[in-house]
Amino acid sequence: QVQLVESGGGLVQPGGSLRLSCAASGSNFNIFTMAWYRQAPGKQRELVALITDGDTTNYLDSVKGRYTISRDNAKNTVYLQMNSLKPEDTAVYYCNVVGDWGINYWGQGTQVTVSS
After folding, report:
1. Which CA distances in Å does 47 have to 29, 54, 100?
2. Three-state secondary-structure class, residue 13
3. Distance from C-alpha of 101 to C-alpha of 70, rounded to nearest angstrom
4. Tens digits of per-residue pLDDT, 56-112?
């Protein structure tokens, strides 16, 4: 019954910016960590950024200084601000939420394409 809906993906030129959003809805439940993953064609899914319920953040080394993860607990929403985008950032981005019992919930994915 819990659903994560992503938005904000699209086509952007190198050096540009995008902001992804992921809103959780459905049954009332406790949200612990919120995160963003990405998967490029032929590649494994990788963790990009994570934020805990205590607002501790962690980032993939290749995106440090360029990406910022944040959360709005009142809206049950997690954001990913992506700046100085590179072609290597092209992937489908998935949001992830860890709730009660350590259960993982996934968004539907949103395409981010960085190209001139």
Report:
1. 23, 19, 21
2. coil
3. 23
4. 999 999 999 999 999 999 999 999 999 999 999 999 999 999 999 999 999 999 999
